[in-house]
Amino acid sequence: MQHPTVRKYLLYKVNKDAHHDISDNELLEKFYNTGDKRCLGILLQRYTLLLLGVCMKYLKNEEEAKDAVQQVFLKVIIELQKYKVEYFKSWLYMVTRNLCLMKLRDKTSKPSKELHDIFTIDEDAQPLKEHFEKDKLLSYIELSLNELNNEQKTCLILFYLHKKTYYKISEETGFTLMQVKSNIQNGKRNLKILVEKKMKR
Question: Can you give the pLDDT at residue 107?
Answer without folding.
Answer: 65
